[in-house]
UniProtKB/TrEMBL annotation:
InterPro entries: F-box-assoc_dom_typ1, F-box-assoc_interact_dom, F-box-like_dom_sf, F-box_dom, Gal_Oxase/kelch_b-propeller, Kelch-typ_b-propeller, SCF_F-box_component
Protein name from the UniProt record: F-box domain-containing protein
Domain F-box: 34-74
Coiled coil region boundaries: none
Pfam family, one: F-box
SUPFAM superfamilies on file: F-box domain, Galactose oxidase, central domain
Gene3D superfamilies: 1.20.1280.50, Kelch-type beta propeller
CDD domains reported in the protein's UniProt record: F-box_AtFBW1-like
């Protein structure tokens, strides 16, 4: 029963609730003139907050809303109709400050549960199908504490600690995603001594609430450089391979992929990447993408360009060192600022923009700065030159950003009060 409760949702969206349940809902709740399909379709469109209240209407409505089939159908609708961004403002010593940007570009605070807010070293490290993965780094404690949190239904679970590695000299890199093939939420943790290459990998399953070690031979001489993105049941990171490039040269950059269902790592050669180019993984039209951002001396060292590369569906190689082909979709810029891409969301590139600072004004410098962009979080439209900017005084200019939508997926019986 415990494992059954932890199941995320059925393998596919759109599975209807049992007709017998729906018919009883009609009769018991006094809605005799609506068919079961209509009732089901009305409920699945409601926000989570309303559905939580409707659980009290009658036991049959409560049972319906708690069924895996309804949770799956509601999740699918929320994913398509109510995409949001959740982002965390990063301030040294600050608590977990979260903000939510909805599809209408309305920005609001997310009030945190006390179980998370009490830790000033907590940060969001992943988001998948309405669940957030939170890492809490406490001095002298290794491995870090990990939570899985559903803010919409106020449930949280503390992931059991791995006992394989408990040496504080190790660093760990997390990846979090849902696998539609195995129907499970999973956390991937790679361990490495500080500044060194990978020396261990473990995978956590929400359905079994346990960890296990996995083979990581393809990660020989690999160091992880970035946070992850998740695409179609696989997790991806930007990494550097020490002295073992495809062409036999020195250190080279690669993208590491981990297939959650197959539990396999692969190395992917990225588009040409040099040390003076920043790289940020993203998802574009349900495919892995990478954003390169850089300054060009040909224009002005204070101006930034962004290139969007998208991986092709068909690879031109295989094995551990998979040479997949890439397509360059476009170049945007120059933007009169330093910027850092964070993600792609609803055909917009979300960026932190940093103000240009000069030590001393020179003749004409004030006029130059008048064209520069102010610090803050920007959303650049991929189809035009339009952009939206948010108040940096309130929300800062240093964020972690994740796609998010509300869901009913349970993680435990533990409820966060006063969320």
């Amino acid at each position: 029963m415990e494992n059954e409760k932890r199941r995320a949702f059925p393998e596919s969206f759109g599975s209807p609730a049992p007709l017998s349940i729906m018919k009883l809902v009609e009769i018991d709740c006094g809605i005799p003139f609506l068919s079961e399909e209509i009732v089901f379709n009305i409920l699945k469109r409601l926000p989570v907050k309303s559905l939580i209240r409707f659980r009290s209407v009658c036991s049959l409505w409560k049972n319906l809303i708690n069924t895996p089939s309804f949770i799956s159908e509601h999740l699918g609708h929320s994913h398509l109709q109510n995409p949001s961004l959740v982002f965390q403002r990063n301030l040294v010593g600050d608590s977990l400050n979260l903000y939510l940007l909805d599809r209408d570009l309305h920005l609001r605070d997310v009030h945190n549960g006390p179980s998370i807010d009490s830790f000033r070293s907590a940060r969001i490290v992943g988001s998948s199908n309405g669940l957030l993965c939170v890492q809490i780094d406490l001095r002298g404690v290794f491995p870090p504490t990990i939570l899985l949190w559903n803010p919409a239904i106020r449930e949280v679970i503390q992931v059991p600690r791995s006992r394989t590695i408990n040496d504080f000299r190790f660093d760990c890199v997390l990846g979090f995603a849902f696998s539609p093939i195995v129907n499970d939420y999973m956390i991937v943790t790679t361990y490495a001594k500080t500044g060194d290459v990978v020396s261990g990998v473990e995978v956590y399953s929400l359905s079994t609430n346990s960890w296990k070690g996995v083979e990581f031979t393809p990660l020989e001489a690999i160091s992880f450089l970035s946070d992850c993105v998740c695409v179609n049941g696989s997790i991806f990171w930007v990494t550097v391979k020490r002295g073992l490039a495809f062409d036999g040269g020195d250190d080279a950059y690669f993208i590491v992929s981990f297939d959650l269902a197959m539990e396999e790592f692969k190395l992917i050669a990225p588009p040409p990447l040099s040390r003076n180019i920043g790289a940020k993984l993203a998802v574009y039209e349900d495919r892995l993408a990478i954003l390169y951002y850089y300054c060009s001396d040909a224009v002005d060292s204070r101006h930034t360009f962004i290139d969007l590369w998208v991986i092709c569906d068909e690879g031109i190689g295989g094995g551990c060192d998979a040479r997949l082909s890439w397509t360059k979709k476009f170049t945007r810029g120059p933007y009169p600022c330093y910027l850092h891409p964070l993600t792609i969301w609803r055909n917009r590139i979300v960026c932190d923009v940093f103000a240009i600072q000069t030590c001393e004004d020179e003749p004409g410098e004030e006029e130059k700065r008048s064209d520069e962009m102010k610090a803050g979080m920007y959303l650049f439209n991929l189809a035009s030159d339009d952009f939206v900017v948010f108040d940096s005084d309130r929300y800062g200019d240093n964020h972690d950003v994740f796609g998010y939508f509300e869901c009913l997926v349970p993680v435990s019986n533990i409820h966060i009060k006063n969320l």
